[in-house]
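Handout, section B. The chain below has 195 residues.
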Amino acid sequence: MKKLVLIGDSIRMGYQDTVKQELAGVCETWFPAENGQHTVNLLLHFYDWIAEQKPDILHINAGAWDVRNVMKRSFGQNIVPLEQYTDNVRYLLDLTKQYTKARIIWATITPMDQEQNHATHAATTDPARRVSDIAEYNESAVRICKRLGVQVNDLYAFVEGVGASTLRNTDGVHFTDEGSRVLGKEVGRDIRTEL
């Protein structure tokens, strides 16, 4: 049986169980218990989460943490600036190609509601995010994927097509249980085509 590895941030954590259910009997599904957070963290865990797991298919969903701002309640520099994110994506994909035989699928960052997100986190001073950054980071990752022959699962376009406001919860970034289930079914469908 082929092995699927899912890595990524809390969006991945929301849909991972649905993916596992959707592909039960088709492939073995593994994912880390931890939130993968940003691309730097994925690189730090490359050996444990990717190389050592020896996936046949690797689905990566990362970027929502990369676009978080360093400064609280203001727009400054992102935790992972665009240029560094671009390098991280390229390096992560190159390492995966070098140390595994996995078919790689890169998922785009899902859309967010900037106003909702800032209003929700105003009390906790959660670092700000900009909608415009998501578009730039997605474009950069997709360019690299095309250059390296990596499949893109455009979750951004999927969520927009279904209706982001019907899937997302009130924090403007994460998804309701039903929204995560819908995402998981889409991720499972995309992965099934690779199997």
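Note. The chain has one domain: 2-194. Compare this with the example in section A.
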